[in-house]
């Protein structure tokens, strides 16, 4: 398993993977499973508000602790009150055994892969990761898809599980949350089995708008060893067109068609 350059768990991947697989999940636990740069921290705040029945932002410390990849003290999580929620970019097959086998709740979050690639490029560049130019990033990170086992593998595995109509997996996309915010928040509230009247839903939508989230000073940027806020950039659909050349777009589409055979998931690339 190849983890990102900045992940604190990269030093001992095997130990990290064992800790995740053997994690003692509870029936009330919720795991947000997302591809990188798909709106993880956005959904994290929404889930926090729904579960805690508040419109207050999460504290920085809790955001850090909820991330499996930033975890350094797994035993401490046993002291947390239920309901607990976590987020990770790990594929379904690497999630806690107890959570998967007992079909505890999973929010599967994804985003169109072109916007995700562009967002990831800017994110890693600002973090000082030596990714080179966009062309170099495209050749070495987009065409060679290997982080967390690869986006294509991640997506196909979750789409297959979701297609089996499992009640414990709720698929959410960045694009749907962007263009149909209120209905998606209602879906999340129903899935989490929490009370949420219209006023509460609209208050969360306002508090978790991109502009307000970007200005939120309890950002999680420093969980990846930096004082700079780089989590939030544009938050739009279609930004890929600003970097993808015609040739790159054609090459990616060919790769997508080949790797996604048998998976009929549809993403929104323009609005």
Determine the mean pLDDT.
89
Radius of gyration (Å): 18 Å
**CATH architecture level-2 label of the domain at 9-112 and 151-227:** 3-Layer(aba) Sandwich
Strand content: 5-15%
Q: Given the helix and strand composition, which structural class is it? A: alpha/beta
Catalogue the unreliable spans. Answer: 220-229
The gross shape turns out to be: globular
Distance between the termini: 35 Å
Please identify which CATH superfamily of the domain at 9-112 and 151-227 we are dealing with: P-loop containing nucleotide triphosphate hydrolases
Biggest sheet statistics: 4 strands, parallel
Spatial arrangement of strands, main beta sheet? 2-1-3-4
Write down how many β-strands occur, each being a DSSP E stretch of 2 or more residues.
Answer: 4
Count of individual helical segments: 12
The helix-strand sequence is HEHHEHEHHHEHHHHH
Helix content class: 40-55%
* The top level CATH class name of the domain at 9-112 and 151-227: Alpha Beta
Fold-level CATH name of the domain at 9-112 and 151-227 = Rossmann fold
Keywords:
271 residues, alpha/beta, Rossmann fold, 4-stranded parallel beta sheet, 12 helices, 43% helix, 7% strand, globular, transferase, sulfotransferase activity, P-loop_NTPase, EC 2.8.2.-, Sulfotransferase_dom
